[in-house]
Write a structure and sequence with these properties.
By secondary structure, the protein is an alpha+beta fold. The protein has four helices and ten strands, in the order H-E-E-E-E-E-H-H-E-E-E-E-H-E. 31% of the residues lie in helices and 42% in strands.
Length: 189
C-alpha cells in the first residue's frame, strides 16, 4: 500500500497531463490540411503498434514526472483542417514499480481524473480489451463542443492511449472515421 501512496503523485501527473497535454500539443503545431484524406496504415516498430491514420502523423516526445522518477510519452498525431478532427496515439513505458500496480488502480485513476474535471462532460465509460490486455474507454464532451473518445490499454508495462477528437457538429459524419481509427489499433506481432 505504501508504494501506491508513493507512486500516486507520479501516476496522477501522467494521467492529469494525459488529455490536456495532448490537446495542448495538438493545437501547438500547424494543422495538416488534406482535401481528401486517404487513410493509410501507420506502424511504429519502437511502439510495437499499427493504426490507420488519415494523414501521416507527426511525432513528439513528452516528459512528465518528478525529480525521482520521470516518464517519457511518445505521441503520434494527425489533424485534419477540413473537419477539425484530431487523431492521436501514444505509448508510455512504466518503470517496474509502476508496472506492478494492478490495472484496476490505473483505470480507476483515469476514471476519477475524467469524472472530476468540471470542463469535461462524461458521456460513457466502459471496460474494453485489446486481445487479452485490459483497457478502458471514455467518451466525453469537451469545451468547444468537441466529442472525445479516449481508449487506454495496459500491455504489460506499457500504457497505450488512443484518442479521437471530433467537433460535435460533425459527430455523425466523423463517427465512422473515429471508429475506423479507434478499431484499427493493433499490436505488432
Amino acid at each position: 500500500m505504501s508504494m501506491k501512496v508513493y507512486l500516486l503523485p507520479l501516476l496522477a501527473s501522467l494521467l492529469v497531463g494525459g488529455y490536456p497535454a495532448i490537446q495542448q500539443a495538438v493545437r501547438a503545431e500547424p494543422v495538416v490540411q488534406a482535401a481528401q484524406s486517404q487513410w493509410e496504415k501507420f506502424s511504429s516498430p519502437e511502439g510495437n503498434f499499427s493504426i490507420l491514420m488519415p494523414v501521416k502523423p507527426t511525432q513528439e516526445k513528452q516528459t512528465t514526472g518528478s525529480s525521482s522518477l520521470s516518464l517519457e510519452t511518445n505521441l503520434f498525431k494527425a489533424s485534419l483542417n477540413s473537419n477539425k478532427a484530431t487523431y492521436s496515439v501514444s505509448y508510455t513505458d512504466f518503470p517496474p514499480e509502476l508496472a506492478q500496480l494492478p490495472p484496476s488502480f490505473l483505470f480507476d485513476s483515469l476514471s476519477s481524473r475524467f469524472t472530476s474535471d468540471r470542463k469535461l462532460k462524461l458521456i460513457k465509460q466502459q471496460d474494453i480489451k485489446l486481445n487479452e490486455y485490459p483497457g478502458k474507454e471514455f467518451q466525453f464532451e469537451a469545451p468547444g463542443e468537441t466529442i472525445i473518445t479516449y481508449r487506454a490499454y495496459l500491455v504489460e508495462k506499457r500504457l497505450y492511449q488512443v484518442i479521437s477528437e471530433t467537433p460535435k457538429s460533425t459527430e455523425n459524419a466523423s463517427s465512422s472515421d473515429s471508429e475506423k481509427f479507434l478499431n484499427s489499433f493493433q499490436l505488432l506481432k
